[in-house]
C-alpha cells in the first residue's frame, strides 16, 4: 500500500469505485436527500451481481463494511450512524423490472424506482403496493416494510414479497423464499440490509387498472375544521380507504404551481378502493368543507404516484416522526396550536397518515415486519437547503413530535424514521429478539450496514 492508498483502494479493481479525494467522489456519494452529507470510505457502483459478491468479499478482507444504497431517500440515519469504514454500494447500475401478467408478479432488480415498476404494471391492469413517491426505489421500500395508500386494505408492502435474491455477509448469492432459506427470507422483509444485499425481489401485484383517488386542498385558515373533521372521519372508515392529511407551507417558488407557491395549505389525499358512488358517499363529509381544489375521481392506477405531489427531484429535507394512537379533540387542538392558522411552525409539511386496518394485522407467513401498530403516522418535514435551516427544521419537527407525545405509542415506522433511533422500536419484541439472534449468527462481525442497524 503506497501513502495515497487506503484499505478501500483494494476495491477499485472490481468495479467503478470512488475514493475520498477522487474527482468523482462528491457526485457519487450524493444522496437523494440533499441534506445528508454522507462520507463513506468508498462508493462502489457494481455493474453485475458477481461484482456485488466480489465487493462484499474484498471489503471484508480490507476490514471494511458494506452498505447497499439505491437512491439515498433513507440516507439520513445511515450517515448519522457513521460511515468511516463503510463502502457504499450503489445499485443503480443493476436496475431492471419485468412483469409476468399471468402470474401477476414482478421481478425488480437494483435501484428501480416505483415510477418504473408501476409504469410496467399498468398496461396489464396491474399495480403494486407502492408508496407516495415515484422516485423511491422499490427494494429499499419493500424491505423496510413499505406503507402504501392501499395498505389499510392489503397490509404492509413487505407482505407482497415472494422471493429475494440476496448477497450475504459472506459474499454468497442465495435465493430466499418461503421454502429456501426461510429464516433469511423472514428477516429480509423488514430488516433488509442488516442480513443481506438484495439484488432482486419478486412481488405479488394487485389487479387494479384504475382507482378512485385524488386530493382536496384548502387554505390553512380552514385547518381547524379540516383537521377535526378528518380526525373524526378516519375513526370508522372502511379499510378500503387510505388517506393522509398534511398542513403544508411553501415559499414563493417559480417551479411550484400557483396553487402551491407561497401558500399555507391543508391537504387531504389518498385512495378509495370502492366504486364511484360509494367513494363519493364516503368523501361527502370532506367535500362538505368546500375544498378550493378537489381532484378525487377515478384515475388510472399509474396516476396514484402523482397525487401526493412528492418532489420529483432530489431535495434537502430533515424531519421527525412518531406513531400516534386515536386523536381526541385535545390532540387536534395541540396540533393546531403548533401548525394551524396564524402559526409559523418552521415546517414545510406536517403529515398524518391513516394507519390501521390490514396494516395492523400480522400477515400469515409474513416477515420480521408484517404489521405496524397505531392509528396515525406523524411525519414532520422541513426543507433545509443550508445547515442552519437543517438545525432549525429538526428542532421544529422534534417540537411537534414532543407536543404530541401524550398520544404517541412507543413505536416507529422504519421507512418514516429519518433520525438515528433504536431499531427495536420498529419491531415487536418477539421479532426483535429473533432478528438479533439471527443477525449474530449470519453476520457476527456486522459487515453489513443498514440505515436502521440491528
Ligand atoms: C418524498 C418521500 C416519500 C416517501 N413516501 C413513502 C411512503 O409513502 N411510504 C413509505 O413506507 N415510505 C416512504 N418514504 C420512505 C422510503 O420508502 C424509505 O426512505 C426507503 O427506505 C427508501 O428506499 P430507497 O432504496 O429509495 O432509499 P435508500 O436510502 O437507497 O435505502 C434505504 C435503506 O434501504 C435498505 N436497502 C436499500 N437497498 C437495499 C438492498 N438492495 N438490499 C437490502 N437493503 C437495502 C438499506 O437499509 C438502506 O439504507 C418516502 C420517502 C421520501 C423521501
What does this structure look like?
Strands 12, 13, 14, 15, 16, 17, 18 and 19 form an eight-stranded antiparallel sheet that branches. Helix content is 26%, strand content 24%. The mean pLDDT is 97. It has 454 residues and is of the alpha+beta class. The protein is globular and about 65 Å long. The chain binds flavin-adenine dinucleotide. Flavin-adenine dinucleotide (FAD) is lined by residues 68-75, 78, 91, 131-133, 136-137, 139-141, 143-144, 146-147, 192-193, 197-198, 310, 415, 450-451.
Brief summary:
The chain is α+β, with helices and mostly antiparallel strands. It has helices spanning 25-29, 49-61, 75-80, 114-121, 138-143, 151-154, 182-191, 223-233, 276-287, 329-339, 387-403, 429-442; strands at residues 16-18, 42-45, 65-69, 86-90, 96-100, 105-109, 126-127, 161-167, 173-177, 197-204, 206-207, 210-219, 241-249, 264-272, 293-294, 297-300, 317-324, 349-354, 376-383.
